Amino acid sequence: MSEKITPSKKIHSLEDARKLAKKRLPKMFFDFVDGASGDEKLCELNSTALDQIRLEPKVLRNVEKRNLSKEFFKIKYDLPFGFAPMGMCNLTWPGADTMLAKESVINNIPTCVSMASSTSLEKMFDLSEGNSWLQLYIFQDEDFVMELLERAEKTGYQVLILTVDVPIQFRRAKDDKNGFTVPFKIGPKQFYDFATHPNWSISTLLYGIPKPMNYETSKKGNKFVRSESRGSTDWDTLKRIRSAWKGKLIVKGVMSQEDAIKIKELGADGIQVSNHGGRQLESATSAINALPLIRKALGKEFPLLFDSGIRSGGDIVRALAFGADYVMIGRPLMYAIGADGAKGLRKILNIIKGELSTTLGLVGLTDINEITSDIIAQKFFKDMKY
Ligand SMILES: Cc1cc2nc3c(=O)[nH]c(=O)nc-3n(C[C@H](O)[C@H](O)[C@H](O)COP(=O)(O)O)c2cc1C
User: Distance between CA atoms of 67 and 73, rounded to whole angstroms?
Assistant: First the structure.
């Protein structure tokens, strides 16, 4: 009897997953995940800048056993990477959030629950057995944000991520062209898009169009409007959040040394260097370019996370060598789920973990915690001494 070829059996690289996701998802939703701001060049630059960091192979080091576990905020994780917050994940597959939560348990890593997630923060905490971190934006209605903080504290969340790089949303041409808005508007164009992607449509329409569940479960009755301005967020907002939140606070979306220093002074516990995967300021520099500068400004001990452009286990090693303590992955998770749901996700995570472990061994190390800029081939970067 011939064995059924499921899509995940065809995934041998991230690009395979991306192509499969592109085929299965309606164009409007693939472009929402894949797209970036303006000319989209920054998204590409994030990855090409990482590629340009070349590592130095080291030989005869006995690298038979390799440790990938890493502590962050004194929490022991099995891997040096976690899942970045992504809103509306369930557009890629019904229950995508749940798949991420389950994988966070299996791999003992953090999963970041977006404010706009399709599953409530309480349910995600439960499903991830406490491995969830909560991500919030600040909207004009701060009372709603404070309500979410109270809910998070009551649920047992220990880590909050405050995303600050979307005071105004940068235009994404493909979203405009596809008529992608939240709340959704389904006209003839979108209907045609769904009809020509029946695998997605049947499963998603049966399961129900995903809703932003942190809003749906709020007592305040706020509605998620993606284009809503967060423009009035400022340093005083950060001070208020800092005094309201007793747990660990990470500020995400920082690309400037000056901002990083001020955020540290205002009492944040960590900073996530990120340009939102190239989805905000189109003309910004690559996130990896900003990382060592921010590390230098904050000193060796300050907890630093990194995202934007990570596409392989090798990229995670590069980011750690450039001064990150912990790394977050974004789009690759959505490509994997969009390609083949939970099976696709498992496959890509196994590929990334394999690459991570192999890269570690081939640079002559047996412990992920030993990575420093010493493993970089280019002298200029090696001399950063991180
Ligand atoms: C589909 C999608 C939705 C996202 N939603 C959020 C969000 O709700 N909150 C947030 O802080 N960042 C969000 N991000 C940004 C990611 O957290 C992360 O910064 C970015 O994806 C990293 O870049 P990469 O995708 O190139 O790895 C989103 C990214 C994508 C692709």
Answer: 19
Probe ligand 1: pick from 89, 276, 291, 318, max atoms within 8 Å of CB?
A: 276
Does 91 reside within a domain?
yes
Q: Is residue 383 part of a domain?
A: no
Q: Which of 163, 89, 83, 94 is nearest to 131 (CA)?
A: 83
Closest residue by Cα to atom 27, ligand 1, is: 330
**DSSP-assigned letter for residue 160:** E
What is the value of pTM for the model shown? Answer: 0.96
Residue 44's CATH number: 3.20.20.70
Range(s) of the domain holding residue 287? 7-374
pLDDT tens digits, one per residue of 324-374: 999 999 999 999 999 999 999 999 999 999 999 999 999 999 999 999 999
Distances from the Cα of 346 to the Cα of 11, 79, 86, 216, angstroms: 11, 15, 18, 30
In a domain, 247, yes or no: yes
Gap from CA of 310 to ligand 1 centroid (Å): 12
In a domain, 382, yes or no: no
Per the CB < 8 A criterion, the answer to whether 115 and 87 are in contact is: yes
| Residue ID of nearest Cα to ligand 1 atom 1 | 33
CA nearest ligand 1 atom 3, residue: 86
* Number of domains the chain contains: 1
Instruction: Tell me the CA–centroid distance for residue 85 and ligand 1, in Å.
Output: 6
Point out the ligand 1 atom lying closest to the alpha carbon of residue 46.
26
Ligand 1 centroid distance, CA of 330 (Å): 6
